[in-house]
Amino acid sequence: MKKIFLVLSIVTLLGVNAKAQSGIGIRGGASFFNFGGEDVSENDYTNRAGFHAGIYASILGAGPVSIEPGVYYSVKGTQNDDIANTRAILDYVDVPVLLRLKFGEGFNVFAGPQVSFLTNSRFEGDFGGSTLSLDTDSIKDTDAGLVFGLGYNLPKGLNIQGSYDYGMTPLFKNSDADVYNRGFKVSLGYTF
Predict the structure, then answer these.
(1) pLDDT at position 75, please?
(2) How far is CA 83 from the centre of its chain?
(3) CA-CA distance, 124 to 27, in Å (whole number)?
(4) Mean pLDDT of all residues in 51-61
(5) Distance of CA 164 to the CA centre of its chain
(6) Per the database record, which ranges form the Outer membrane protein beta-barrel domain (predicted)?
């Protein structure tokens, strides 16, 4: 309940700030996530395709520097190319606050912190022609990290960007394993 209240509060503040300052927009696209960290072997996991979608506000957006808070639903996880094609599917509400620097004709770079709130986690595998799905409570409820990337503003409010999410909070509860959410996002957005 606390998570839902926090997310609704942030969405409300985004809407008020966006209306008072600059613009609000929607953004979504493909995500390619994997587990990273010292305790993850490169041969264990491969990128798992997912998606993300949500809203953002561009505060002080008229100048070369803007602040961009957002709220996104994001599907992360990883995949193992073993005989059962096992995979972890982690659903989050991401709340980034980005500093965006504009340069050249439409280009921008951005970076900032992000807090993610776990909404669902499950492990799946294919066994004997069917898929077995198990909900799990072994994943921590919050994940903190950094986001950085490159964007381009197209005409008529459209924008595209590529970003990297660098998780910095170990994923598993009651474990010393050095395992984190890490992944790329490719997005298309529209600022109203």
Answers:
(1) 96
(2) 29
(3) 28
(4) 92
(5) 9
(6) 21-172
